[in-house]
Write a structure and sequence with these properties.
Number of domains: 1
Helix content: 25-40%
Strand content: 25-35%
Order of helices and strands: EEEHEHEEEHEHEHEHHEEEHHH
Structural class: alpha/beta
Number of strands: 13
CATH architecture: 3-Layer(aba) Sandwich
Radius of gyration: 19 Å
Largest sheet: 9 strands, mixed
Oligomer: single chain
Shape: globular
């Protein structure tokens, strides 16, 4: 069993520090860093730090795409990338030293051609084998059909793959028409799935259990932000509370959480420990600056607090 991640909307993540954010002034930036970004890519990066090698699948284009790919190779992530005609987007994050606040700027991606979409699908089918874990994480570029992820999942059905999905919006609703292994909505996303603006604790648990009962997913992990997460599975509901820490960055915290869940799944851990690893990795990502994600030494420290 291996792990294959898909990032259909990757990004070259650039981060910097400024003394203070002031309008109209030319702001002097320092500590410029570049990291490869996007849901599945971030998951593969954290898994590598936990000694789990994954196959990282994504489309890339232009000089930004080449830079992203080179950074992943430097980090010894197993890259399986297919070229496309449009440039890979570049996201930007600024840390304001005076306030300790972070400002994040996400750039859109234009749609790419049907032939390029088919190349991605072909690459996935080449990499995913029977009983593998296949991870879909992140948004779709604008213009791609909302059932694109669902189409890929259906093409893998005969391989009995454990499909893990972390996305949102209409794309997420479409994906939930398949039987999945694990999903990771946050509280707002869970409420939207239930057709409500918000859910109280009991309603959250009941609806998450309903998703398990009706075989939408075997595991429903709901992120509670700074409070941790809960998981619904066939034997009930588990909670793990996150420790109180000083947050440096929230970029990739959700992706790091998914990586922790996957790590524990590959180690045949109990549902409670799967959730502990997820929360530990998510919290650890917030201890790193910019888009540097969770590091093993921080994960081990946080695990001792859970």
């Amino acid at each position: 069993m291996k792990v294959v991640t898909l990032t259909i909307n990757p990004a070259l993540d650039k981060s910097a520090k400024v003394a203070e954010m002031t309008p109209f002034d030319k702001l002097e930036c320092s500590d410029i860093t570049y990291h490869p970004g996007g849901g599945g890519i971030n998951i593969s990066r954290v898994l590598h730090r936990l000694s789990i090698e994954s196959h990282c699948v994504f489309p890339y284009g232009g000089k930004t795409g080449e830079h992203l790919k080179d950074l992943l190779v430097d980090q010894q992530v197993n890259v399986f990338a297919t070229p496309i005609s449009i440039w890979t987007r570049e996201n930007f994050a600024v840390f304001e030293v005076k306030t300790g606040l972070q400002y994040r700027f996400g750039m859109p991606t234009a749609s790419f051609s049907e032939a390029e979409m088919e190349n991605v699908e072909k690459l996935i089918n080449e990499q995913v084998a029977t009983n593998d874990i296949f991870v879909i994480s992140g948004s779709l570029p604008k213009g791609l059909p909302t059932d694109y992820y669902s189409k890929i999942i259906k093409s893998l059905k005969a391989k009995d793959v454990k499909v893990i999905v972390d996305t949102s919006g209409p794309v997420f609703n479409e994906v939930l028409k398949n039987e999945l292994f694990l999903i990771k909505p946050n509280q707002k996303e869970l409420a939207r799935l239930a057709g409500k603006d918000s859910l109280n604790k009991e309603e959250q648990e009941a609806f998450a259990m309903q998703l398990v009962t009706n075989k939408t997913a075997q595991y429903v992990v709901v992120s509670l932000g700074k409070d941790g997460a809960f998981m619904a599975h066939k034997n009930g509901v588990e909670y793990v509370t996150a420790p109180v820490i000083s947050v440096k960055s929230t970029i990739g915290a959700g992706d790091s959480m998914v990586a922790g869940l996957i790590y524990a799944i590959t180690q045949n851990e109990s549902p409670k420990n799967i959730l502990r690893w997820g929360v530990a990795c998510g919290v650890s990502a917030t201890l790193s600056e910019g888009s540097d994600l969770a590091h093993k030494e921080n994960i081990e420290k946080v695990l001792k607090l859970l």
